[in-house]
Amino acid sequence: MRRIRFGLIGCGLMGREFASALARWCHLTDMPARPELVAICDLFDSSQADLARWYKENFSSLRQVTSDYKDLLANPEVEAVYCAVPHHLHQKFYCATVQAGKHLMGEKPFGIDQPANRAILSTISRHPELLVRCSSEFPFFPCVQRIGDLIEREAFGRIIEVNSGFVHSSDLDPQKPINWKRQIEFNGEYGCMGDLGMHACHVPLRAGWRPRNVRAVLSKIVTERPDGKGGVAPCRTWDNATLLCEAECRGSSGGVFPLTIKTKRIAPGEKNTWYLEIYGTKVSARFSTRNPRRLELLEYRGGEQSWQQFDMGQETAFKTITGGIFEFGFSDAILQMWAAFVVELATGKPPKLFAGCVTPEETTLTHDLFTAALESHRQSRVVTLE
Asked: Which of 20, 126, 299, 381 is the 20 to 30 Å CA partner of 40?
């Protein structure tokens, strides 16, 4: 089996999820290639001693531990890189990775702002031989894969309305110390849209539903937080965002419909919820990670209407050893996403439309939307997307 040797830049929360997925690779079946972690890069200061130890103790394949990303990119063993760093570093690190001739999986939003995203896309365009994708795992839940199959078959008929969102309550506590996601110089002006928005946009964009305009309402709810030094620091990023778009369906059914996208860091009652609702003239569908097994479908053939509930198990895009009746979770979605990246790298294409990772071009569409949303909120009006 072909081995793809990975380097990891940014060894925190998502870096460890990536590494754990690689350690579970035997959980997948019929894979054309196997990833191997050979190099890691982070600051690795005194406060991160336990972090470095975790990687060293769990990955015997690891041969390079460095605090300089340039050393990792110069390593001839490294074929592909997962770069999980704060938004202000995306342009610098992503461009350097591609220029070094490495395949890249980057984190959203793929640049702190629109100019950064354009610079990254310009660099990618000069290296068509490389696979470059963006992380977004929620569409790999089995229920969403089923919805994707329905979209591909154009089973919904004419689209009436779509609601998509990613909402949680991680910042509900006003005494939670400030972190980089609350600071505009690191997270960017998009705020919650930059960090959460790709998750909410992934399925609509992959379906070919393009926002034509947007009216955005953005909220700063907690304006300052403890700074960890006995004082307080201002929170300059948006906590919550609601985007109402007029979207165009580019499938054969055609038509224009309302698309609502919500991203919230302060959503009382929510733990970490991704949801999708699609209403069509023939079929409607609803799914939320609040109940990750439950898919709701309504098929309309005239007469009475009735929502049906289906409990789904391990009905995944990429087969696993887990029995079909067992429930699916977040770490399983991460594994499926990485399977999608590796399969596309090894074979040249994903097995189906909704079993592929976010493309650089799709990240550009989100930047167009979020930039227009900022203008919409500032001017309290509908803004047209080019």
From this structure: 126
User: Are 200 and 270 part of one and the same domain?
Assistant: yes
pLDDT (tens digit, 9 = 90+) per residue, 88-118? 999 999 999 999 999 999 999 999 999 999 9
Return phi, psi of residue 179, to 5°.
-135, -175
Among 96, 119, 134, residue at a domain's last position: 134
Q: Give the pLDDT confidence of 167-223 residue by residue, as tens digits.
A: 999 999 999 999 999 999 999 999 999 999 999 999 999 999 999 999 999 999 999
Structural tokens at position 122: 């310009």
Position 344: which residue type? E
Is 51 part of any domain? yes
Pair (43, 163) in one structural domain: no
Specify whether the backbone of 30 is left (phi greater than 0), alpha (psi in -120 to 50) or beta: left
For 246-310, give the DSSP string. EEEE-STT--EEEEEEEEES--TT-SEEEEEEEEESSEEEEEETTSTTEEEEEE-SSS----EEE
The answer to whether 350 touches 331, Cβ cutoff 8 Å, is: no
Exposure string of 281-302, with b = 16+ CB inside 10 Å and e = fewer, is eebbbbbbbeebbebbbeeeee
In a domain, 77, yes or no: yes
113 and 153 part of one domain: no
Tokens describing residue 81: 């890189």
Per residue in 273-326, pLDDT tens? 999 999 999 999 999 999 999 999 999 999 999 999 999 999 999 999 999 999
257: its two tokens? 């419909």
Domain membership flag for residue 384: no
Give me the phi and psi of 259, to 5 degrees please: -120, 115
Q: Of the residues 87, 117, 134, which one is the last residue of a structural domain?
A: 134
- Give tens-digit pLDDT for 29-73: 999 999 999 999 999 887 777 899 999 999 999 999 999 999 999
Q: Which residues contact 319 (CB under 8 A, 6 or more apart)?
A: 28, 29, 30
The token duo for 115 is 């100019």
Indicate if 197 and 165 belong to the same structural domain. Answer: yes
* Number of domains present in the structure of the chain: 2
Give the H/E segment covering residue 198.
Answer: helix 192-206
Do 249 and 370 share a domain, yes or no? yes
Of 29, 105, 39, 134, give the one whose Cα is nearest residue 78: 39
